[in-house]
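Quick question, first post here. What does this chain look like in 3D?
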Amino acid sequence: MTNFGDHETGTGRASLTTGDRRGLALARIGIGLVQGVILYLLWRSVGTGYGEDAVRAWPATIPTLFGPLLLISAFLPVVLLAGVGRLRLTTLALWTVVAGIVLALLAWHDVVRQTLEQLDSPPFLSPPMVAFAAAALFIAHHLVVPADQVRRRFAPYPSYFDTAWKAGVQLALSLGFTGAFWILLVLGSALFNIIGLKFLEELLQKDWFAIPVTTLAFAIAVQLTDVRDALIRGVRSVVLMLLSWLLLVITVLVAGFLAALPFTGLDGLWDTGSATALVLSAAAILIILINTAYQDGLTDNLPPVVLRAAVRVAAVLLTPLIAIAVWGLALRIGQHGLTPDRIIAVACTVIGIAYAVGYGFAALQPFWRRADWTRPLEPTNAAPAILSVGVILALFSPVADPARLSVADQTARLARGAVTPDQFDYRFLRFESGRAGEAALARLAASTNAEIATRAKTAQAATDRHSDRATGAPDVTPLIEIWPAGTTLPVTFMAAVPADDDRANCTEPGECLATLMDMNGDGSPEILLVRENGVMIYAPAEGGGWTGTGRANQPFCHGETRIDPRVALKAGTLKPVAPLWADLSLGTSIRMRIAPGEPCED
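> Answer (accepted):
Ran it through. Tokens below.
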């Protein structure tokens, strides 16, 4: 019986028999097909529509179930594809269970922290959580595999390097193969279309085919790249060699940037609004390129002297870059408090500090020691990798949920007067911080501070994150003159309105006139809000109140005096007339309206 889990020995792979290869191929093909079928069934349950109009099936009707199933179905088969043939069966089974449980818990927490409005449609998962979960899974998997291969808790550094970089190249090639596979399918369908055969094009549009064939192609690509171990190592060597020489470029650029700062100051960097992200990105690139030069640290892969010097300089440059990131974060948090993005930036900075300390120490090693020229890089790479997994798990769990921590900090700033009620970001609580923000907004709505309570209630009523209501701006009672004098308008039209409603701009006597006028000949009059610069037409809204349905603006006619629509209304000359040209129908409710080329002529 073939054992798919015991082929790895040390840092290399033992020879595989034909039966072993056939068994691995069948296993991976099976994994790809099962993944495709499960993803298709999940996709089919999504159905159509949004909100109350959504037509969904189980399990998409239960977000706390659908989210974990989707994340597990997307990522766990990749773990199996990468682990089969490389891990012992017991280790593979245990690691698969652990990874599945962690993925499920991450997805479950990501769903339950969102409001019902945010769970309006699948996949119910936030993109940052998905991206960071993928990163944590990749890192953790390549901590497990080398350790299992050498039967120790911690493997030698060359094993970690060899496994991780080989897997990275294999992943890139497999994704490229899958993309090329689809390009060929599309090209083939186009060729058949030329001769009038539509079957392939129609087949590619079927979800039951497209999803499983994609996962199957990826699984086959993993198998093909896996059995060509020497080829993958050769490609990896070329990639590492090319990238390592880019270290010289980024080192010169970063050194020049840091050398110029005493003369230019940091104001320009702070003015970008993304200083921390920029310097952390530069630090991350330095770390990656340092490793492409250092590689596994063995004397056989000792880089040229110029690259060894670049590694030392780049390792030292990490410290000032991370210091700038810390400074920038401290300034922003001190000025504006915590946000989810800043908390994630803090987490990345903590990891960056770990790298900067270790790499700085490694750079202090004597330059002439060829055998151990930067040996401290090895534990430095391993320790932050473990730290990264822990930080990601904390960020996307209740331990350090960025939304919860941000809401607590922002409301604390409001309570101690660091931010005034009119400057507080109610939109963040209403739309951007999930259930934690929703609960905090409810507490503010019950505040004994009248202004805070009013603004919080206004934000609660907002349905559009871009509206003034979402900012907590209070409703405005418009000052509107009814014409003709002595007539009345519905009380709901004259009531307080959100600050982004046209009526809210009516703040001066005589600025706005309102009148009843039947604009579409249905026997029910609409309300015209007449101002100096145009007319807004309001019709009854389905849920009560009034909604703007159209706007009329006076064209500018050269040589003619503009007529104030308010004057025309009082003179009795403002009235509906038939359009110069009828609309064109497209056979649906959509119409094409003809705009005359000379609006100033009769």
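The two ends are 92 Å apart (CA to CA).
The longest strand covers residues 534-540.
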